[in-house]
């Protein structure tokens, strides 16, 4: 049985700059102040304000704080009316009257009440109520981009299982299937009676074909079926909204950004106020906050591209959440952290999606150490050359806290002369194990521990790391690196070193003692000069030198396989395929396949490329052993069916397609392919049966209808 601390779910929030762990909530609040903090302002008070309020020692201080709380939000200070405060209490009153009816809780506690109080009246509301779906409301809002809000977004609320209460809908957590009131069995086998146009019709519309492929890649079968049913019976608007909280978007790639948006929306009231004023009520900064709310937390982050000695480029990142929350269970402090990453090219196309779950289990002594340190989550993954936007979502699965960041990055080709951004670190390990596995910010045997905020003690040694790609032999032998530190605009320290002093490498580590650097802000510039003294490249970064003690770092870094593991060829090959570079995809995926012949995942990825190259017999040859081994997998049977059909072996193809149907139920594309095969075999009766069954599922297939009509006319 899970143990509970204090009242209900109390979690320990460890500040990244904390020196002690504060875990005592003021339990002597009168009902007046409990109602204020836990009910009246629960949705608009910031975590920092709440932290301060719980630390106040008497009612006089609390009254002053409440007065200041509203003053900070007053749009017209100096007048007798506080419009913000009046509107806030009006929203609470409206929520209690409107949204509490028929539910066991007060209106302000419902999901609709919560967002109405936070965001106010929506610009527009659409309501849906048909036999095919649970009742749904879509609320449309316009945000203020100057406050870091989305300019336009929508929120869905639905009666889960037909209950009276409306729950907030999440495209990622709930999915379209939760909007359809059918059991799992009915969803899988019965609801498949009205779907979107089938393969033949879609082929005439490349954009629709591309969209359906992305849709099938993102959704499992139940959600895919539900989405198609909603679009067919209810309409495009609700179908699109079931995938995206961004009006005008229906692409499945917006599911992850929608998840970020839904959580970020709950912080919109926080963005209207600078809550640093709250610390003025305290003589010292608090180190812990106690919260019962799901909320966004800030973060510090760093992203760097580093080349491994094998030649592969890795995206390395460090994420430092402002707070780390843990739960107490079986005398240990536990949580699970999840990272979800999407890499999109300049056109917004997803090239790579990836994520990990990181279980964290701490003893009391480890927790005591962690409370005095900042928590760093580090990871890395390989990436093919190109310009990308990285979108990272970090979730604490125990407490539902989350944070995120988005960056634009460039992965170089490695052949052209280019210098990486500088990495400044307080610590390195020059003899880290490399052959068995590697970690983020590891280059060969060198393990780097970057400073996220580039702050150093005046007694530290600064470790400055960079890489230069595309060095010619002449530059390796005669080129120089110049290191210049500026205090303000004036050079403070300058020196040069020849490139060949570092050995035959494109990685450069420089150690700079800071004992002669007075506390202050500095800029470091590293420049590459050719033998003629011409500056070819340069990079800059800022750093801060201080005398104040700095917190330690609690580093959690995930390990990666060794450089020769087929995992990397598998990942890179799929990235090339998603980018449309088929030959490069082939070259990588064939390496993964040949190194691990028993992997169905690696083999299926390889056959995707072979199908694109029309090497159908080869596809059959390498997939047949899996089929003969009794492996039952829809992708296996579907690919074998496609390859057999394209090879002209229609009878064999039908057998594989039917095995695929036994795995996944009636699928329009498979039924149409079965019909095509029977027709080519001259069995028009069986072809008609397959196509007519396909039409029952997706009636808007004009090409299929036309073929059926022509066959029936000839038979008549």
User: How many extended strands?
Assistant: 27
The assembly state of the depicted protein chains is single chain
- The total number of structural domains is 4
- Give the number of helices: 22
Strand content: 25-35%
Spans of 5+ residues with little confidence (pLDDT < 50)?
A: 1-27, 183-203, 283-294
Largest sheet: 6 strands, antiparallel
- What is the CA–CA distance across the termini? 72 Å
Q: Which radius of gyration do the C-alpha atoms yield?
A: 30 Å
Helix content: 25-40%
- Shape verdict: flat
**Mean pLDDT level:** 85
| Structural class by SSE content | alpha+beta
Which terms would index this structure?
716 residues, alpha+beta, Immunoglobulin-like, six-stranded antiparallel beta sheet, 22 helices, 27 strands, 34% helix, flat, disordered N terminus
Give a brief outline of the structure.
The chain is α+β, with helices and mostly antiparallel strands. It is built from 22 helices and 27 strands.
């Amino acid at each position: 049985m899970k143990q509970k601390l204090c009242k209900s779910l109390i979690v320990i929030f460890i500040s990244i700059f904390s020196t002690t762990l504060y875990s005592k909530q003021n339990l002597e609040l009168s009902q007046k102040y409990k109602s204020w903090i836990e009910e009246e302002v629960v949705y608009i008070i910031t975590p920092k304000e709440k932290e301060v309020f719980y630390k106040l020692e008497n009612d006089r201080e609390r009254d002053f704080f409440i007065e200041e709380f509203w003053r900070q939000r007053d749009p017209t200070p100096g007048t007798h009316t506080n419009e913000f405060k009046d509107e806030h209490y009006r929203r609470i009153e409206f929520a209690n009257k409107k949204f509490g009816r028929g539910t066991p809780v007060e209106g302000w506690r419902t999901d609709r009440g919560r967002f109405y109080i936070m965001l106010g009246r929506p610009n527009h509301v659409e309501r849906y109520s048909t036999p095919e779906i649970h009742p749904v409301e879509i609320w449309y809002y316009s945000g203020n981009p100057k406050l870091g809000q989305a300019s336009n977004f929508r929120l869905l609320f639905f009666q889960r299982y037909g209950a009276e209460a409306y729950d907030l809908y999440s495209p990622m957590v709930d999915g379209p299937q939760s909007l359809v009131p059918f059991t799992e069995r009915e969803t899988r086998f019965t609801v498949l009676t009205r779907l979107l146009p089938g393969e033949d019709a879609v082929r005439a519309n490349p954009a629709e074909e591309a969209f359906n492929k992305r849709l099938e890649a993102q959704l499992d079968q139940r959600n895919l079926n539900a989405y198609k049913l909603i679009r067919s019976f209810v309409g495009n608007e609700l179908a699109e909204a079931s995938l995206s909280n961004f009006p005008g978007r229906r692409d499945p790639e917006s599911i992850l950004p929608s998840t970020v948006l839904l959580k970020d929306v709950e912080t919109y009231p926080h963005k209207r106020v600078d809550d640093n004023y709250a610390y003025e009520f305290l003589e010292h900064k608090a180190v812990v906050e106690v919260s019962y709310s799901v909320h966004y937390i800030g973060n510090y982050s760093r992203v760097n591209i580093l080349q491994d000695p094998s030649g592969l480029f890795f995206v390395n990142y460090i994420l430092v959440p402002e707070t780390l929350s843990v739960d107490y269970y079986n005398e240990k402090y536990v949580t699970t952290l999840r990272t979800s990453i999407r890499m999109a090219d300049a056109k917004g196309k997803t090239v790579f999606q990836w994520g990990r779950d990181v279980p964290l289990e701490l003893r009391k002594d480890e927790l005591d150490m962690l409370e005095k340190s900042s928590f760093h989550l580090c990871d890395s993954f390989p990436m093919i050359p190109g310009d990308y936007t990285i979108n990272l979502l970090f979730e604490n699965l125990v407490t539902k806290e989350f944070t995120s960041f988005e960056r634009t990055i460039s992965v170089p080709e490695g052949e052209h002369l280019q210098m990486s951004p500088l990495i400044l670190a307080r610590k390195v390990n020059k003899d880290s194990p490399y052959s068995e596995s590697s970690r983020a910010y590891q280059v060969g045997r060198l393990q780097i521990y970057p400073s996220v905020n580039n702050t150093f003690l005046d007694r530290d040694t600064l470790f400055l790391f960079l890489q230069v790609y595309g060095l010619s032999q002449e530059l390796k032998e005669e080129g120089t690196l110049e290191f210049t530190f500026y205090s303000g605009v004036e050079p403070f320290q300058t020196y040069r070193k020849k490139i060949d002093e570092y050995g035959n490498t494109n990685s450069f580590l420089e150690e700079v003692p800071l004992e002669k650097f007075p506390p202050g802000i500095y800029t470091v510039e590293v420049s590459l000069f050719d033998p003629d003294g011409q500056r070819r490249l340069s990079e800059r970064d800022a750093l801060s030198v201080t005398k104040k003690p700095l917190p330690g770092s609690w580093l959690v870094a995930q390990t990666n396989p060794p450089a020769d593991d087929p995992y990397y060829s598998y990942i890179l090959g799929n990235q090339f395929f998603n980018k449309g570079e088929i030959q490069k995809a082939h070259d990588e995926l064939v390496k993964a396949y040949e190194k691990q012949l028993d992997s169905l995942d690696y083999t299926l990825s390889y056959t995707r490329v072979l199908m694109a190259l029309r090497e159908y017999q080869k596809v059959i040859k390498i997939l047949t052993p899996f089929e003969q081994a009794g492996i039952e997998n829809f992708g296996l049977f579907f690919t074998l069916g496609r390859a057999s059909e394209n090879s002209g072996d229609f009878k064999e193809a039908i057998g594989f397609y039917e095995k695929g149907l036994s795995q996944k139920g009636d699928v329009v594309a498979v039924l149409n392919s079965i019909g095509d095969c029977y027709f080519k075999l001259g069995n028009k009766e069986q072809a008609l049966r397959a196509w007519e069954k396909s039409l029952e599922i997706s009636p808007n297939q004009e090409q299929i209808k036309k073929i059926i009509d022509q066959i029936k006319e000839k038979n008549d």
